[in-house]
Design a protein that fits this description.
heterodimer; A: about 325 residues; Rossmann fold; six-stranded mixed beta sheet; 8 helices; 16 strands; B: about 210 residues; mainly alpha
């Protein structure tokens, strides 16, 4: 298996989860058959927050399990939804009797399996859902279509909902805050090089020298357009301006930004992106009040970056600032 | 304690026998289902449902089958563990049926549990009648159960099977709008939906109990 740290393909995800217990056993615990991850020290009396989805986006979602964020994360195989049995078991383990909020990225398999799990528990559990569909590169207007993809705004959603749940908010309030974050957020991503799937050894698309792919998601799929490469200032501007427009941000609006590495783009470059992002936002009269910079929602080893903007208000800012202790965010 | 049921009340052991007959029917027909799916979808349907029912067969070996709900719950879990779309939706359907009473079921119980279960599949799967999916067999079966004049579960399930069969056959003239077959549109219009056919076989298998 050249180029990848792995044993048998079918063990990749399970072994990565077992490794997470090695590095962070004080924070997270792996439950097996069906597989899901919970806090090592579970909360006792609060709304439970559960998320999950395909693997290959680490540290999402297992890296956000801990005080102030998720109670449980449910990983599927690489880029594949977890099954409904896993989700159901995670809800049953996390629910303290105060109800559960599921944070679901908008993909057909995730939506189906998370909703089936919630439906089958409807006799015994209160389960509410927040659907994250922030990717501006995908269309939301097609009637009956799948709608926009869920990408890095999921981190903001999990942070805000997690803080609210920790502070004792009831299940409907945690749900509504999550939906508010989603409605106030948008994301765009670009790629310099597609990821190689360790299960197949294949790079998911090819770019010529001097080309970038604009409007990519987080599963190695092509974006909406192949464009010529550009300097950081222009790249960041091309990602940011459509977000500002789509969110209808006026002068003086307070903004939270996630400058997200998509897997193989170095922290050095992400910091340059953050600098250019502030320049770009300030140039439009916006106030960049909070930032999160780093590889948080990755697409295996894709080279590239995504930018998420969330229109802040005082309540969301306060929840964003609340203490958090997870493997990826603290 | 296991209530053995009677002609008016479907028992746990009856339900177990029903599923074992269904698993046999699917095993015999898996190649036909796969062939239908190859013409209208991605060709893995027969294998997937056969695999889930194979696991269900082993799981059913280990339970008391005290009442139908326990049997449906056990089978549901084996489908929920599968990927794709059809498997989880079968799992949802059987899992919602398992919300029924923890005692033998009358015809009225059957009508009620299959009604709520089918509504859940329609809601979460987003499919209505006429879209060439398993729903095209489920809905007529539910209507047959609700309208059944008989007190015997065998007869009522037989009526459901006939209705489901007619519903499945009707998918042979439909253009798909949901699921894999929707990618082929008109080209797959004459192919019977394998999910709907499986539902018809499910109800028909009750006759072998």
């Amino acid at each position: 298996m050249g180029g990848h740290v792995m044993n048998a393909r079918e063990n990749l995800v399970r072994q990565a989860l077992e490794g997470l217990e090695v590095s962070d056993g004080d924070l997270v615990r792996l439950h097996r058959d069906p597989d899901f991850v919970t806090r090592a020290d579970p909360a006792r009396d609060k709304v439970a927050l559960v998320s999950g989805g395909g693997s290959g986006h680490e540290p999402l979602h297992t890296g956000f399990v801990g005080r102030g964020m998720l109670d449980a994360a449910v990983p599927g195989d690489v880029f594949a939804s977890p099954n409904a049995l896993q989700v159901r078991a995670a809800i049953e383990a996390a629910d303290t009797g105060r109800g559960t909020v599921l944070v679901i990225k908008n993909y057909t398999g995730d939506v189906l399996n998370f909703n089936i799990a919630a439906d089958l528990l409807s006799k015994t559990h209160t389960v509410e859902t927040v659907l994250v569909d922030d990717d501006l590169a995908t269309r939301s207007e097609d009637e009956g279509g799948p709608g926009r993809r869920g990408t890095a705004a999921v981190v903001v959603t999990e942070k805000v909902c997690g803080a609210a749940a920790e502070a004792g908010a009831p299940v409907e309030r945690v749900r509504d805050l999550g939906r508010e974050v989603v409605s106030r957020s948008a994301t765009l991503g670009m790629s310099f090089q597609a990821p190689v799937n360790p299960l197949t050894g294949l790079r998911s698309f090819e770019l010529e020298e001097g080309e970038i792919e604009f409007g990519v998601g987080i599963h190695g799929e092509r974006g909406i357009e192949t464009r010529p490469a550009a300097e950081a200032a222009d790249l960041v501007e091309s990602l940011t301006s459509p977000l500002v427009e789509s969110l209808g941000l006026g002068r003086g609006a307070p903004v939270l930004a996630v400058v997200n590495g998509l897997g193989a783009t170095h922290g050095l470059e992400l910091s340059v992106a953050a600098l250019e992002l502030r320049r770009c936002l300030e140039g439009q009269g916006l106030r960049l009040e909070r930032t999160l910079v780093g590889p948080y929602v990755t697409s295996l080893d894709m080279k590239g970056v995504s930018i998420t903007l969330t229109a802040l208000n005082d309540e969301l800012a306060e929840l964003w600032d609340a203490p958090v202790l997870t493997t990826a965010l603290r | 304690m296991t209530d053995t049921g009677d002609a008016a009340r479907l028992s746990g052991p009856d339900t177990k026998a029903w599923f074992l007959a269904f698993a046999d029917r699917i095993s015999r027909g898996a190649d036909d289902l796969t062939d239908l799916d190859r013409r209208a979808g991605d060709g893995d349907f027969g294998w997937n449902i056969d695999t889930s029912l194979g696991r269900a067969r082993s799981a059913l070996d280990g339970i008391d089958a005290a009442h139908p709900a326990e049997v449906f719950k056990t089978v549901s879990d084996t489908f929920l563990a599968s990927g794709g779309t059809s498997g989880p939706l079968f799992g949802l359907w059987f899992g919602r049926v398992a919300h029924g009473p923890e005692a033998p079921w009358t015809v009225a119980d059957l009508a009620s549990v299959f009604d709520t279960a089918t509504a859940a599949v329609q809601r979460l799967g987003g499919a209505q009648v006429g879209q060439k999916t398993m729903v095209d067999a489920m809905v007529p079966a539910v209507q047959a159960l609700a309208g059944s004049a008989t007190d015997g579960w065998r007869e009522a399930l037989g009526e459901a099977a006939e209705a489901a069969h007619a519903g499945a056959e009707s998918t042979g003239g439909m253009v798909a709008r949901k699921g894999r077959a929707s990618y082929l549109g008109e080209r797959a219009a004459d192919v019977v939906d394998p999910g709907a056919l499986s539902i018809a076989w499910f109800f028909a298998s009750a006759a072998d109990v």
